[in-house]
């Protein structure tokens, strides 16, 4: 694109040098074939419009086809020679501006390089914070512009640099001066000139620079770093979820299990004890043995809350919650207490049932022993 912009002055393709025409046709053919293959890959063609990147690439390819092939074909069939004579200067200017849309091809890099996508999403997520900081900067500019204008009116001395008087002639001019000569330029000569005019300017200008160029910039960097970390963590979490779901589905299909139906305890147990799954979960810091031991609790929770068996989504969610890298929360503590209570109640119930069984057995044995003793006594008496 840079070479085309620097060396191709033609507004339309048929007036461009041959090398640029060949390159444009090759690029157009490549993108057209790519979008066609991607469209044919959809089992249900209507689903393609639910894919944002497919729609984006389709619009880009449509624009390229219209510019490269359709427009060129129309001009050639119409028999026009030099298109510069066909269009007015305004139309040619519009055509050249429309060619800026080619820059949208750069968006493909967002998919090729995930880090660029993270940065772009971070900028979008930080948009509100950026607007707030920009608004605060404007407020600071306005306040200090008023202050500088009033000081300029009060000071009687003539500055060494006469242009400073014009720089602060009005509030708007003062804001422009502070913005261009202080925030976005090397401020030393500006501060020296003001200080040479009158020392009272120095502390106010320094304070302004500290607030805007130092404090605000570091705040902006902090906001961006925080947002980038949040977006990166979200992207990593999404990648982990996709990896777990995809890997488990592949193993389940290999073992003849149905990932789309309800999962019984035995099915989940067999899946978690599979060597491939256990090794995969170990890499994600998930103990499959602990998961197997807690299956009863998970199934009871799902049955109590939703009245159904565990499905594939519940299994993935449970595995994500059992990662050793997860920070402990109050909800986790409450869940642990609830599990302990449930386990204790269950064990106590089983112990009570066992004791009652033993007591009943003992009673029967004692009764049988008493009956034998009484029958023996009667036999001796007879």
Automatic annotation (TrEMBL):
It comes from the Eukaryota. Pfam families: Ion_trans (PF00520). Gene3D superfamilies: 1.10.287.70, Voltage-gated potassium channels. Chain C. Keywords: Membrane, Transmembrane, Transmembrane helix. Its main location: membrane. One of its GO terms (molecular function) is monoatomic ion channel activity. It is a multi-pass membrane protein. This is MtcA2 protein. The gene is mtcA2.
